[in-house]
Write a structure and sequence with these properties.
Helices cover 37% and strands 31% of the residues. It comes from Amycolatopsis halotolerans.
């Protein structure tokens, strides 16, 4: 299993737009066989940081999912929410392997 961790800098004035964007990506990751662990949004105080975690069975499975970016109409529509609203200022993606309790 490989887990993708995405750290976002978001526009705190556009949380509702970010939540729409996030909901679509959670659905799309599940549709493509991944497990979405959720988006983690600011809860208290002023913050412009958010995080997403989702897993695929392997890097190859993740790479198959990535081939749909810019091609699949639902992927394009999900990215359009981000692009048109300006809710995401920037993001960074990294891959981790989980060590889970037995």
């Amino acid at each position: 299993m490989i887990t993708c961790v995405v750290d976002y800098v978001i526009d705190p004035e556009k949380i509702a737009d970010f939540e729409r964007f996030a909901a679509e990506w959670m659905r799309l990751v599940r549709r493509e066989g991944g497990v979405h662990h959720g988006y983690f949004l600011p809860a208290e105080g002023a913050s412009d940081e958010a995080r997403a975690l989702f897993s695929f069975e392997s890097l190859a499975a993740y790479e198959r999912y990535r081939t749909l970016f810019g091609v699949d109409p639902e992927f394009v529509a999900a990215d359009r929410i981000r692009d048109e609203s300006g809710c995401v200022i920037r993001y960074r993606r990294m891959f981790m392997r989980p060590l889970l309790p037995e």
